[in-house]
């Protein structure tokens, strides 16, 4: 992931933190799982 993409993800994450409700919570969970899976794959390689 490029630095620009990382910054965009962080910006969107910070915007998402302002949103309440089950849909926002589900999105946060999915984002965290995505990064968790990438981290696991990177460590396994």
SSE layout and pairing:
Blueprint (H helix, E strand, L loop, with lengths): L2 H15 L4 H23 L1
Low-confidence spans: none
Q: What portion of residues is helical?
A: over 70%
Shape: flat
Number of extended strands: 0
Please give a quick description of this structure.
By secondary structure, the chain is an all-alpha fold. Helices cover 84% and strands 0% of the residues.
Architecture overview:
There is one protein chain. With 45 residues, the chain is mostly helical. The chain has one domain (3-42). 84% of the residues lie in helices and 0% in strands. The protein is built from two helices and no strands. It has helices spanning 3-17, 22-44. The protein is flat and about 35 Å long. The model has no long low-confidence stretch (mean pLDDT 81).
Task: Please tag this protein with its features.
45 residues; mainly alpha; 2 helices; 0% strand; flat
């Amino acid at each position: 992931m490029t630095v620009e993409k990382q910054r965009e993800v962080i910006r969107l994450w910070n915007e998402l933190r302002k949103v309440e409700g089950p849909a926002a919570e589900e999105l946060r969970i999915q984002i965290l799982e995505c990064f968790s899976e990438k981290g696991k794959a990177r460590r396994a390689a």
